[in-house]
Design goal:
The chain has 154 residues and is mainly α. It has two domains: 3-37; 55-129, no CATH class. The protein contains six helices and no strands. The longest helix is centred in the C-terminal third of the chain and has 35 residues, at 95-129.
Length: 154
């Protein structure tokens, strides 16, 4: 159960003192008062940004991954080979960090490709069916030149 709702229930319905709630939860009386005074449902903690050993090499690894993505499948270098090359440059982190970075990088590339392909797909569909929002001379070549929709055009 949510700690803040428990604190509110103990204080409001069960009529426990702030000192007793502090004893039961292990939180300071100051924090209990703060939670009761504010209307927050869940405390917001700042996002933690921890520095990775891979951060100084992120640009290099990104360019290598981009290069590998454009290569022929038989010429690809495995992530183990890329990790070995990074170790040669002074990287002292684990292979797992490199694999996680590559996984995230590939996911971002897929999402970027999906965004681009959606707009391209919409444009292709509009061109295929000659859908416009106003009368326009369309490249259909039939009698529906000035109509809004021409489904005969492929």
């Amino acid at each position: 159960m949510d700690l803040l709702s428990v604190i509110r229930r103990w204080h409001g319905r069960d009529k426990l003192s702030i000192r007793e709630i502090s004893r039961r939860t292990g939180l300071s009386r100051h924090m209990i008062r703060k939670y009761l005074a504010s209307g927050i449902v869940e405390p917001k903690y700042p996002l933690r940004h921890s520095v990775s050993k891979l951060d100084p090499f992120a640009g290099t690894l990104s360019t290598w991954l981009k290069r590998e993505a454009g290569r022929n499948r038989k010429r690809w270098q495995s992530l183990k080979m890329l990790h070995r090359d990074l170790v040669g440059l002074g990287f002292d982190g684990s292979y797992d960090r490199v694999a996680a970075f590559a996984r995230d990088w590939r996911q971002q590339q897929r999402e970027a490709d999906n965004r681009a392909s959606r707009s391209t797909m919409t444009t292709r569909l509009l061109n295929k069916y000659c859908i416009t929002t106003f009368p326009l001379r369309l490249p259909c070549g039939d009698a529906a030149i000035n109509q809004q929709v021409c489904t005969g055009h492929v």
